[in-house]
Amino acid sequence: MHLTRRLFVAVVIAISSHGASAKTDPECLKHLGGGFSDAECFAGLRVNIVEENKLLYKKIRAKVPVGNEHAKVLDAYMAAQDNAEKFCELQRDAGAGWETNPDGSMYTALYERCVFELRTVQNKFLMNLLTMANW
């Protein structure tokens, strides 16, 4: 029992430290096949793109003059994107018979893909916005 618990803790720590220290290689998108590895790919890439989106946001925010109402609009946009992740649960849960806690099957991959795609669209929007702000 203690050996199993220690092994479990070691595996969790190894997975956590790997995710925290390394960026996910976009190459994983070429090897999608359903299930946990897909969820891991999309989740890892999402972390990468969320980091990039935060940097883009800061660059854009720095371009907005102090007191300008567009700063509030930009902040609201970023908050709306964060809130939009919740809607990806609909797709995941619909596939799992509307269960809110699907097991580790492909339904988690559906959620992670949805969130990744939302963040990818956000990234494109922010990059275009930064381009316009730099004109």
Q: How would you characterize this protein structure?
A:
This is Lysozyme inhibitor LprI N-terminal domain-containing protein. Residues 1-22 form the signal peptide. It comes from Paraburkholderia fungorum. Keywords: Signal. The chain is mostly helical. It has one domain (26-133): Up-down Bundle (Substrate Binding Domain Of Dnak, Chain:A, Domain 2), CATH 1.20.1270. The chain is 73% helix and 0% strand. It is built from five helices and no strands. The chain has helices at residues 2-21, 36-63, 70-84, 88-95, 106-133. Helix 2 packs parallel to helix 5 and helix 4 (88-95) packs antiparallel against helix 5. The longest helix is centred in the middle third of the chain and has 28 residues, at 36-63. It is elongated, with a radius of gyration of 18 Å. The termini are far apart. The model is unreliable at 7-21 (pLDDT under 50).
